[in-house]
Design brief:
Layout: H1 2-37, H2 43-70, H3 91-96, H4 105-126, H5 133-155, H6 160-163, H7 172-190, H8 211-230, H9 239-271, H10 276-290, H11 299-322, H12 331-345, H13 355-383, H14 390-395, H15 397-402
Amino acid sequence: MDQVIEIAYALDTFYFLISGALVMWMAAGFTMLESGLVRARNTTEILTKNVALYSIACIMYLFFGYQIMYGGSASSIIPGLGFGLSVENSVADVVNSGGDVYYSNTSDFFFQVVFVATAMSIISGAVAERMKLWSFLAFAVIMTGIIYPVQGYWSWGGGWLADLGYSDYAGSGIVHMAGAAAALAGVLVLGPRKGKYTEDGKVRAIPGANLPLATLGTFVLWLGWFGFNGGSELKVSDVESANAVALVFTNTNMAAAAGLVASMILSRAMFGKTDLTMILNGALAGLVAITAGPNVPSPALAVLIGAIGGVIVVFSIVFLDKLKIDDPVGAISVHGTCGIWGVLAVLLWSDGATIGGQLAGLLGIFVWVFVASLIVWLILKAVMGIRVTEDEEEQGLDIVECGMEAYPEFNGKQ
């Protein structure tokens, strides 16, 4: 019996680590998606931001973020600061638990750290093409070390949202809406790109430089999401858990497919053309929407949830443009608007979630992340500035910030 428990522990730890590796690969997906949707002259800077933010997130979450989320509590609102990354479980710990201890402590940290990096990646695309690189990286330090972990403690760490019964299986609100809230605050302080909106209020399309790369990035994110949602089951070593993981994978895939098809049909009806950028965001919208609860609904219901997400994202992108909220990649709509829908969609099935708990979660997470981020963005604006000059924006951030071009044969121009 002891050997069976040890083997289950090893299997669950390995599954957790592989799931985390898939989520880490989402960093590549965000990088490719964003670099495909910006203009050629800003590509190198986008690449630099994404590899740097991932590394910053890992360091900040190890020394600060994980300790805030899981290091104990001062109250249900204020997290403690204990060292959450504790000594590894011994064989005796595992065996004597009777199977209640079923994965390595370090594997839990690894799985959690790639989630916080995902939240930070959402911000990168929304503020693209006009934000100073080092201002963005300074914000990444605070976001991954403090802002994200505080609201993470409220829910996954056992704080007040957990007490209210807030249900968010893999983070439609905790990860995706949180990232979008921080992005929205940044975009409002930053302002739109030069030439995005005409003097008479019309929206000027600014096409990306590399749609094949953006499409590949979407497929990479789609693949990584199986780890994002599937790993959130936490184990796979018994029949019930294995069946749950299989359902999560299936529902995740079906929601993405439905989101893509729904956005494709809607964009054709609205614009008279099949807009590739909209349908890529439709797939991501479906993925975000199902993330709050992929472990319970039937695959048919997952199709409905994803399809609604695919419809919502198109309307959201158009609406934000009318408000002159310039988001080059549609990140706020994909992760914010559809994150809200995903959290509310949990109410479509009976798993103990309540409308009060879900609304409290949405409101608490959004208000905290938005207000805290807004304060940080404003401080950065006052201290070091967050936006490049108009001349630098016209020249392109590749040369201004990085001193090199991603596509030198085209002189970094479109």
